[in-house]
């Protein structure tokens, strides 16, 4: 989910839920939240919790945009490096 977060640049207030479907953390999820200025490389969003193995987790994600189709906005490639502390 996202909404505009600036009147002067392309920036969104975003919340993401990432659900893991395979491996050791299958069935768990974590949540990213923050302001995402999409033309800034790199940028950072906070991990504010999760479910399953990531309950009460904290951390951050570093985002880097590698490609964005400026004509249609339909294609974007973003790398997420995620660092999570969980209990």
TrEMBL record:
InterPro entries of this UniProt entry?
Allene_oxi_cyc_Dirigent, Dirigent
Does the keyword field hold Metal-binding? no
| Gene Ontology CC entries for this record | apoplast
Q: Specify whether Secreted is a keyword of the entry.
A: yes
What are the GO BP annotations of this UniProt entry?
Answer: phenylpropanoid biosynthetic process
Q: Where in the cell is it found?
A: Secreted, Extracellular space, Apoplast
Q: What are the entry keywords? A: Apoplast, Secreted
What family is reported? Belongs to the plant dirigent protein family.
* PANTHER family with a match to the protein in the record: NUCLEOPORIN-RELATED (PTHR21495)
Q: How does it assemble?
A: Homodimer.
Purpose of the protein: Dirigent proteins impart stereoselectivity on the phenoxy radical-coupling reaction, yielding optically active lignans from two molecules of coniferyl alcohol in the biosynthesis of lignans, flavonolignans, and alkaloids and thus plays a central role in plant secondary metabolism.
- Mind telling me what this protein is named? Dirigent protein
């Amino acid at each position: 989910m996202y909404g505009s977060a600036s009147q002067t640049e392309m920036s969104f207030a975003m919340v993401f839920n990432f659900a893991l479907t395979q491996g050791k953390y299958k069935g768990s999820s974590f949540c990213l939240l923050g302001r995402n200025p999409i033309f800034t490389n790199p940028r950072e969003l906070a991990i504010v919790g999760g479910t399953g193995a990531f309950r009460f987790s904290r951390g951050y994600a570093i985002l880097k945009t590698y490609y964005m189709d400026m004509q249609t906005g339909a294609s974007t490639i973003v790398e997420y490096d995620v660092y999570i502390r969980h209990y």
